[in-house]
Each structure stands twice: as structure tokens, then as C-alpha cells.
Predict the 3D structure of the following.
Amino acid sequence: MTVITGEGAHEAAPPRVTHTEASPGDCSIVARGLTKRFRGGQVAVDDLHLSVPRGSVFGFLGPNGSGKTTTIRMLLGLISPTSGACEVLGRPMPAGLASALPKVGAVVEGPAFYPYLSGEANLLRYDAADPKADPRTARRRVGAALDRVGLGAAAGKRYRAYSLGMRQRLAIAGALLGPRELLVLDEPTNGLDPQGTREVRSLIKEIAADGTTVFVSSHLLAEVEQMCTDIGVMRTGRLVAQGTIADLRAGHAPRVRVETPHPAQAASVLHRLGLARVHTGEDAVEAELGDHAPEVVNAELVGDGVAVRGFTVVRPSLEELFVGLTGEGFDVDG
Amino acid sequence: MSTVETENTASSTPGPANAAPERAGAPAPGAAFPSPPAPAQTTSSPAGGGSRDRLVASPGAVRAVLRLIRSELGLTFRRPRNIAMLIMLACVPVVIGIALKAFGSDDETPTLVTQVAGNGLMLTFLAMSLLVQLLLPLAVGVVAGDSIAGEANAGTLRYLLTAPAGRTRLLAVKAVNIAVFGLAACAVVAASALIAGLVMFPVGPVTLLSGTTVPIMDAMLRVLIVTAYSAVGMAALGFVGLAVSTLTEVPIGAVAATVVTVVFSQVIGAIPQLAPVRPYLLTTWWSSFDGALRDPIATDVMGQGLLVFAAYALVFGAIAWGRFSGRDITS
């Protein structure tokens, strides 16, 4: 009931795509027909059309193995697409990576650092690899990035001695070394404890508030739901839905569920109040809440002498939506 | 907290002056890379006006490359494994010296070995001729084989490339790093042998292989020539290792393959029936540094050696570039 079908979601996507092709300058990331077929014939990403609006926090969702990381690698010029094209910050990739990537901070497939160097030395190493980073401000920028992820105190400690959560934070710090127009974060909260996850979420919100576009991949719905303005959902290499969270939720009006021994009487009250799609069950009635205040509905029911045993407002979670989109559910698709 | 400002604040006010404080290194997009800049600049990106910036970018681009080379060298010479190899290399001449001092030599014919007892400076040439065949190539092979494959294996390669280090640029920096390490390894051997020779044996004018006797300062100059020649030979091997390193994500495999190439070349070179192949083998020319121990210096032989080294560097450098520039980085 509360799950929209894949077809329904597809219908939501086209307006955004056409809008994008009209003015690609409004998008930080654009992919057109992006396809990656690995040697051996495995199609990791299949005809992907993606547009990430400038300034959005874009949640790139999908089960493990659905092609998220392969897409990110293509966006960052690490692998070349079999067919199709993509643009990052208006530059075609991989041809324009030299001019685009200095403005992009990235965490790709977990942290990777030199174990025998300190956290600070590791970040200086990556900063040295960026031809547009100013060496004179390197230490200050590295220090600021470390402070920002809460690693200031562990800056001098060898990476080898870092915990998984600290390593993840260091990777995020690496993405914040310079002023960025776009952050690409591949599973940024992997390995973090709940508190760390919260911190990363608020950090992302803070960065987004400055106007930076954030493209964050995740297989965790709750996480995306809490921080993203837009989402795209991947399933086995294909994008099955794309749009703003508000759009996706719009297809999902909240519903009231009234448990009562007098369903018929309750249904007539709901009809009278103007609630849509009233569905009468054996000992419960459901209807779309619309703009009605639930407490008013409840008061009307009780005022009319309906014995209300239970009154619930059901707001469909994105989880239900995504399970519908991705079929078997998360962490299942190989 | 907010010292890391976003570019948006800078880019909303056009003009390079505002963006300059944070990223003054190289203002021009694309100019730091050998690859051509973005062909389709369809949108009005805040980094636009590249053609004007590109003209002033080269000093910044050069500085940026130097910075990456410094970082690379720092990494190589801070790495415990590499330090251990250099220490090992430094110990070998000392051990040879002690062995010669303790046991002498029964050999009557004048060789490098017997000459060391008469003149400490000869220990440098002896140590170099022994180490250049296996231990020095081993050390260089480890650093070269690990260069790209090691980064790929650790996953650091993807972060370097998204920095973006640039593939050609990174490969060039790696090649420079290997060459410098090779030079350092040869210099360590020479210095250690020189000091050990001075401490343990009498030192005086050196009698060369050609029978002429030259003063100490002349001999010292020849030590420098030997070290430099050996370093170039090791750099040539470094290019082989670099090429192998781009073929795999398993550093130990690349290291082993590089060292096996050396051993294989030596075996081929030792088979009399395969003598025609010898001039094309890297290993054949390594010991040609003894041309510096003749009077006049055998520049023809050493020149040929340098040509072979250059040819190896060119061929294997091209293989490395061809492989690395278009490869999918999936590690």
C-alpha cells in the first residue's frame, strides 16, 4: 500500500532530467547514458542518466553491488566509461579532470592512507598531489580539516594506530583540504559509531549550508533520509528513481488508521470530514489524512460516539519506498 | 572551525584575486597536466578564463611538481623498509673490508681484491663491482616494483589520482623518485666503502687496472664517476620495475618480477652460446663502470653502456605510460 512501484518512480524522474538538459550549468554532476561493462562482460552500470542539482545534498542509494562505487569512480575519472558521458562541475570527465577535481573532495570506497605516516603527514601527502593546492597554507588547511572531523588531538599519531572510525574521519578530512564546490562521499559513515555517524551527518549539513554540493552514497536509508534533499536510487546498475525527497514523499500522503469496533460509523465520519480513499476493514478504517489535523479527526470521531481503540497516523518511511524500488531489499542484490 | 571555506564564497565574486589566497599555487585549470585541457567548456564555470591563466601557470606547475617530488622522496626515505635496505647496503662494504683485513688474500694475481690490501680506495671499486650485480638491483627493484603497484594495493593510488595528481605527472614523479633512490643507494655503498677503506687500509696514489698510477684526488673523481654511472644503470632497471609495477596491483609480484629480470639477464649473459644477445642486456653494462679505472677513461664502453641504459629507460618508460595513462583504477 505505502510502497510506490518502480514504474511510478520512473515517472517522477523525467522532469528533472529534461530540466537538467535545458541548463546543465545548474548541475554539479550530469551523467548521460553512462555505462560500464567490465572485462568479462559484467555490466556494473547500465545506461545511467543522473543529474545532481548544484547546492543539493544528493543521496545516492542502492544495495551493495548496485553500481554506486563504479559510478563514483567514473565521475572521478578513475575508470573510463564503456559508453555514455559524464560531467563534473561542467567539465567532461575524464578529459576535464585536471580542472574539475581540485574543486572536488572525495572519499572513495573507504579510507586509504600510508600506515607508517601520521594523520597529518598523510593529509599533507595528498595535498601535495593536488597541483592547485597552495603549499604555503598546507599546514593550516590540514590542521583545520583535522579539527573539523575531531582528529586534531590525533594528528601526530601514526595512521597504523588509528581505529576504524578515526580512519574514516581522516578520509573525510582529506576531502575537506581545500575549498570545495562538490564533495563526493562514498559510504562516509561506514565503521563509525552512532555518535560519529551523527557528527558526520551534521558536518555534511554544515558543509551543504555553505553552498557546497554533496553527493553521498549509502546503503543506509535512514541516514540519507535525515540529511539529503535529493536522492537517486540504484538497482543492479540502473537508476530506478531520482528526485527530491519531498517529491518522492508527495506520492505518499500520510494516512490515519482508526481501530474501532464500529468501522462503518467511523468511515462515514471520515467521509463527512472529507478524507480521501477511505478503506473500511473488519475492525479498522484507513484513510488519507490530507491537510486535516489528526487531533480534530479524532475529536470528531469520539464526538460522534465512535469507540476509538487506536488512532495512528502512518507516515510511510522512505524505507518502505526503497524496498519497493529495489525489490528484494537492501544488502541482497549481488 | 570554519577556516576551510568553500569555494562558493570565493567563486560568487568573480575574479582570480578573490580565489587566490587559498589556491595560489597554479591558477590555471589544466595547465599543470601534460594532457590537453578540457575540450568542451560549454558552461560558465567559475574557473573560466583558463586561456589567460594558462600563460602564467607554468612556474606554479613546476613548483607543484617539485612539491610532489619532495613528498615522494620524503615518503621513500622515511619508509622503514627502504631505510633498512640502505643500512644493509652500507654494511656490506664494511663486512668486505673486515673480511679482507682479517683473512687477507692468497691470490697472487693482482685483482681488485688483492689491491684493496694495498690501497683502501680500491675497496670502493670492489664493493661496487660486487653489489652492482645483485644487492643494488634488488634494492632498486623493491622501490621500483612497489612504486605504482604498492599505491594501488594500499588504495592510496585512487586518492592521489582524485587529488588530482595526474597520471602522467604521477608516473614522472615516480620515475624521478626511483632514480634518486638508485643514486642514493649507489652513493651509500660508495661512501661506506670509502670510509671503511680509509679506516682499515693504507691509502695512497691508486694504481689503475691499466697499470697507471694516479693521485688520490684523481682517484676520488673516478669514485664519483663510478657512482654516477652505476646510478644511471640502476635507474634504467628502475624503469623496468616501474613498467612492471603498472601491470599489477600486487607489489610483491612486481618486485619479484623485476628482480627475476635481473637474474634472468645474468643467466642469459653467462651462457656462451647466447653471446650475441649480451650487448642488449642491462646486466652486461652495469659492471662496465670499471672503464673509469683505466687511463684514459674508457669512454667508448661506458658511453655504450649509457646508451643502453637510455634505451631501456625510453622503452620501459613508454610501456609504463602506455599502460598507466588509460588504465581503469579499480583498487
